[in-house]
Amino acid sequence: MSKRLRIGILLSVVALLVGCAVITVNVYFPEKDINQAYTTLEDELMKAGQKKAPDPAKTDDKQSSVPFLYRLITPASAADIRGDDESGLSKDLVVKIKANPDVVQAYKSIGERLGQIDGLRGDGTVGEGNNGLLVIRADEEGLDKRVVKSIRDENRDRSVIMAGMAKAMREVRNLPDNEENRKETLKQATDQFAKLRSDKAKSGWWVQAKDGKWAQKK
Description:
Layout: H1 3-27, H2 31-50, H3 56-65, H4 68-71, H5 75-82, H6 88-98, H7 101-112, H8 114-122, E1 126-128, E2 134-136, H9 145-172, H10 179-200, E3 206-208, E4 214-216
Antiparallel strand pairs: 1-2, 3-4
Helix pairs in contact: 2-6, 2-7, 2-10, 6-9, 7-9, 9-10
């Protein structure tokens, strides 16, 4: 084998390894950025589903108490002034997801049924699964059909949100929409959604660990 051929083969192997390394780096997303994006979306979109019509009189009073120049600031600018700790990556994810009407509606629907789901989590009827979905822990046959429907609707909306996050992750990194990237981004999106549900669980709620074991949140 000539020296030139050996060098050519070596360069090809190096290029292949570098290419694989780049793919791995691009697919990985810092957990804190995904978590921050989920938190921001819940704060904004879930509350939108819970909003009641404002009292015009109270709204006018509040508006008049706010300095005129501050009311001219856009929501994004106001966030910058408050010094919100949100990275550029998490902001990009939020923007992408807000442009997805199915995910926006899923968040609003979750907000609308939040009181009912909290009650079911509180009495142990359901627990937070390690896949980001609610798991029925009671005897399903003994549950009201409307309750079962609400749980299924909740899980459907959660699945839409996790899939939407995975899609947004691929789009902000311009990743090819292939099976491998879909699988990896969905795994990361699911893991962080489940972690957030566990972190936000109230005392007494049932939560499933990664190893499948169940425990009540203390």
